[in-house]
Write a structure and sequence with these properties.
By secondary structure, the protein is of the alpha/beta class. The protein is built from eight helices and 19 strands.
Amino acid sequence: MGKVCIIGAGVMGTATAHRLLERGFSVTLLEKSLPGAESSAAAAGILGAQSEVSGAGPFLELCLASRAMFREYVRELESLSGVGCDFEDSGVLEVALTPAEGRLAAGRAQWMLEQGLKVELLDREQAKQLEPNLTDRMVGANFYPEDCQLDPVRLASALAGTVHRLGGVFQTGLQVLGLETRQGKASGVRTSAGVIPADCIVVAGGAWSTGIADLPPTRTTIKPMSGQIIQVLTRPSALRHVLYGYQGYVVPRRDGRVLMGSTLEERGFDKAVTLNGLHRISSMARDLAPILGEARLDATWSGLRPASADGLPMLGESRHLPGLFFATGHYRNGILLTPITGRILADLIEKKTPPVTVEPFLP
């Protein structure tokens, strides 16, 4: 098998490396900081194939296929790495606080039911039976029992550990300066430490992906979209399910941590946490579950989502430079799409047919 160089060691880069190493490829991952330290670690970890998708089509099918892989995927990573990922079948409640939101929720439930997906329409009393600490002023909720969650920091750690155990090489603290080509094909990555030769290159650099020098034309560009998150502590855990509102989300962990997010800000590569952002998030969370107003503040942070201009990820081989592949632009769904991305990229590099259609996502 050949040599693959992956630019970026977040969950997309390590998930791809994992599958390639299993198939006998030699893999080097380049990372400017630490594996999983950027948007992978900043995410909330909602595996919301239904709660985060707006309509039927190839993107929904991609999300559903990835969600279906997660239970076995986590079991495999935990066995190989020894790191638990805190996977939970918690389900997601999409909470409607006003009649207008209730109509939107009902419309979403309708098209999902028409697609044969599981969703339960709950009135106020039914939703409070499922989640007693929800606000009394809500009008109802959609319950997505097959959406789930995990801890993305632990997922990133498990993936990095798995890649290391399988023989992947991490080169950290490097600046990628550009690409090398030979006879019209990608042949290596130019870095601050010299050229790293490769038979294939995978761009998995998150929000930085399309800023690399010497890239050929791509279907879309990737830009950073900042998102702030608050983490609070409750003892015991105040909530049982992920709550999805029309202004944000609340993610309870089994150990009493609760994540609340997130802003959506176009500020370039600025990852500042702001008072305005914290105010919006905390107000949203208390509107959904007033009990959170008494929770203890634990941490705040901000991450940079890799947003594509057309709203779809870039998965697959460049149309203009053979040997150059992309695994980026997943925006709000990066953690959810981790297992399917690794599988797709490994299949395409090995010249096999992926398990789902990739034409809409080609670079």
